[in-house]
């Protein structure tokens, strides 16, 4: 049981087994014995048995299996059990109702809203998600249906929605109002992403086909006639504009808008070409071939007069100059002289400024010989060096009392964080696992590699049904 009105994936080690906490176990397994799984009369079961008739202790009988109170999935069904039966059903959430029968058969104390089996005169409704307990014998009253179904209140049934729908209209089940994962709502139909192109785009946040020219608050770009969804930006990017704002303006971060000539020049980061049909970024050197319509790779803002090349008014980070922008030395964000590593004023991320006399250069945060710190990935640009974060294969630890300064300790393996392979098992006597290396008295380090541990277990045994070995158990995943 998972959540609990939905089917669960089960880890099994024998197709012919009994359910113990939703895992299929042979009736003679330690788990089944601990749960007190026996026949209805208390008789022992065989390994060919497929259901429990009784449970004991903190376990309770539910739909032929034994479940433990306080552990999932049993905790989603029952909150208290005595003598192998549930005495208090978990009715919060309304996925389950308590059987109101005067005389309740063992195992029928709690009934799923979707369980259509007659249990002492009471039952659920097929594909029902939440419900209220019935006042008289018969089916419960369904209040909400599972995904892909809609409630017919008059008939107290859940009707299947159209293909791909997770929700639909009660009056017309083919009229979708929401879609299953991987489908997108286009009007009242659920379609594949490939059917949601051109003047529309598939929005993964709403699972809807959005018109490219929709209002911004609806996820569109006004006046845009063609677009696609950009995963990095998590929003659409326009490829063509029309109407009163025919110029496509692309910002430095890649986001787009449709503008007129004045909108293009707003902010001075773009200019309109001499043909008046394109809005070009000041640093764009590839869109146009005419020298008068080409930008410069170092320009951040510029101005342009018709028939003349754009003129720089401010340079991008990493460039130096006024009318002409020339690249600073690598790693310099700003500089006082182009192409001179000793004339940096501020540094790019991952570097810090080191001053020696009149020379100022940017060095990597992890350059120990220059005053950096091993494993440091980002650092402050203050006069006092502070490491603000570490590389992925390093552990971050607070440096003294400073809340924004850290030391970085090598976590595992080589400089890229790769661990060496574990040693081979000796006759299946040890099971190697990869963990986050949290302390555990049952684990011990085998190589000093912080990311891997070995678990000794003399009880490890081979699998007889083709399953994989995992934590002392033979497991095989099935739907």
From TrEMBL:
<dbReference type="InterPro" id="IPR009030">
    <property type="entry name" value="Growth_fac_rcpt_cys_sf"/>
</dbReference>
<dbReference type="InterPro" id="IPR052798">
    <property type="entry name" value="Giardia_VSA"/>
</dbReference>
<dbReference type="InterPro" id="IPR000742">
    <property type="entry name" value="EGF"/>
</dbReference>
<dbReference type="InterPro" id="IPR006212">
    <property type="entry name" value="Furin_repeat"/>
</dbReference>
<feature type="domain" description="EGF-like">
    <location>
        <begin position="364"/>
        <end position="409"/>
    </location>
</feature>
<feature type="domain" description="EGF-like">
    <location>
        <begin position="327"/>
        <end position="363"/>
    </location>
</feature>
<feature type="domain" description="EGF-like">
    <location>
        <begin position="112"/>
        <end position="159"/>
    </location>
</feature>
<protein>
    <submittedName>
        <fullName>Variant-specific surface protein</fullName>
    </submittedName>
</protein>
